[in-house]
Amino acid sequence: MLQFIRNRASVELLSRSFRKYNVPESSGQLLQDLGFVHMSMSGVFHLLPLGLRVQEKICRLIQQSMKSVGAAQVSLAHLSSKEVWDRSHRWETSGRELFRLSDRTERELCLAPTHEEDITQCIANLVESQKQLPIRVYQIGRKYRDEARPRGGLLRGKEFVMKDLYTFDIDADQAKETYRQVLSAYHQFFKAVGLPFSMVNADTGNIGGKLSHEFHYRSQAGEDTICVCPSCEFSTNSELLKEIQPETAHPCPKCGDELALSSSIEVGHAFLLGQVYSSKLGANVEVNQRLQPLYMGCYGIGVSRMIAAIANVTKDSKGLVWPTNVAPWKVLVVPTSFKNMQAAESVYDTVANVVGTDNILLEDRSNHSFGYKMKDAELIGYPFVVIVGSQFQEQKLCEVHVRATGGRHLLPVESLHQILLGNFL
After folding, report:
1. What backbone torsions phi and psi does residue 59 show, to the nearest 5 degrees?
2. Distance CA 308, CA 219 (A)
3. Which UniProt keywords are present, listed alphabetically (predicted)?
4. What digits encode the pLDDT tens for the residues 353-394?
5. Is residue 321 part of a domain?
6. Is 182 exposed, middle or buried (0-12, 13-18, 19+ CB in 10 A)?
């Protein structure tokens, strides 16, 4: 029977997963202990199949949000030249965080930590008329920053995955409208992820511009402190307020009420750049018979950082608790014993029709007890575990465990969609 299952290519089997199976000793590095990632060196991580699946789920949600604002996906080169960074004056101001290297002709290059210079130079060579505007392009790719003190696993590393969107408009008003639309798309993206988040005013920093917002998850693992007023809409990164001390009460500058301070992890950032880069890199368009620099915005989401942030925010004493839309697998089907494997495969087929074959996994390992498998399922954090045992054989009933709530539901196979489609959550 097991051989029959293994020959079915459409069935996703847990035994084929490439990961650790040891119970971790420390909850501080669950992603490494459970085989989501593997540290190659300080600040550099390999994504293993489970971690890659979470990243892919996040990327799909990002692609949906970018589609909603009409952005086209591109892939920009990792290598960038000193010449283009000199034009923006950031070759020197970026300091030691920039990975610098030379090719065989002694041409100076860097591994791009961001792509404002390169995309602006590209647009400067492509835009010939204001009829081509607005332009909205984004990429999801690896970035590089020589962090002095990498920490928190994927939270702060030397190599990381980001989504960056770059927008180009004809004037300041249209650029502000684009900014508003992208912030709205970001709200929809973070809502789709399924965790509470905060949007706060932020410093523009080394990138430049005059308007900036950050998106945060509240967590003790975070390096940032955000200030939110419970009485009005004021919210900001503490960097924008002088003399903020965590143990001291601070009045809101807008209404006077006491600000609530909390540690947080920044996972998204938006900048309204204006003409900072376009004026220096020649991204111009003719307006009223005069060349005018384009108005630009840039918008980032820390994709790999989000994996660690979500894990930190949701984990409990039993392990990880992935939100349904970003879980590596939404559903794990577990037979209570080997004799129930054929029935479990039947349930797998039924559930796959509800959630899709890309979201369901069959527990087929024969070298572990049922108790071990259930504990392992809690550690990994599958949103739903469907148990196939004697009650299925006798009454066609399955027991469904909901990881986020701890709820348990006994349902006939034909009613499983009530749980899996979220009606009980």
Report:
1. -65, -35
2. 11
3. Aminoacyl-tRNA synthetase, ATP-binding, Ligase, Nucleotide-binding, Protein biosynthesis
4. 888 889 999 999 988 999 999 999 999 999 999 999 999 988
5. no
6. buried
Return d(Cα 418, Cα 101) in angstroms, integer: 56
Q: Is residue 425 part of a domain?
A: no
Average pLDDT over residues 288-308: 96
Q: Quick one: the chain helix, strand, coil %, rounded to 5?
A: 35, 30, 35
Q: In the chain, how many domains are there?
A: 2
Instruction: Tell me how many degrees the CA angle 31-34-40 measures, rounded to the nearest 5.
Output: 60
Q: How far is it, in rounded angstroms, from Cα 218 to Cα 196?
A: 8
Which CA distances in Å does 238 have to 109, 212, 246, 250, 302?
A: 35, 14, 10, 11, 20
Model confidence pLDDT, tens digit, residues 82-109: 999 999 999 999 989 999 999 999 999 9
Cα dihedral 168/173/177/180 (nearest 10): 100
Domain of residue 293 covers: 37-314
Q: Give the pLDDT score at 20.
A: 60
User: Which of 254, 289, 314 is the last residue in one of the domains?
Assistant: 314
CA dihedral in degrees (75, 80, 86, 92; nearest 10)?
110
Query: 3-state class of 300 per DSSP?
Result: strand
Average pLDDT of every residue of the chain: 90
CB distance 98 to 113 below 8 Å: yes
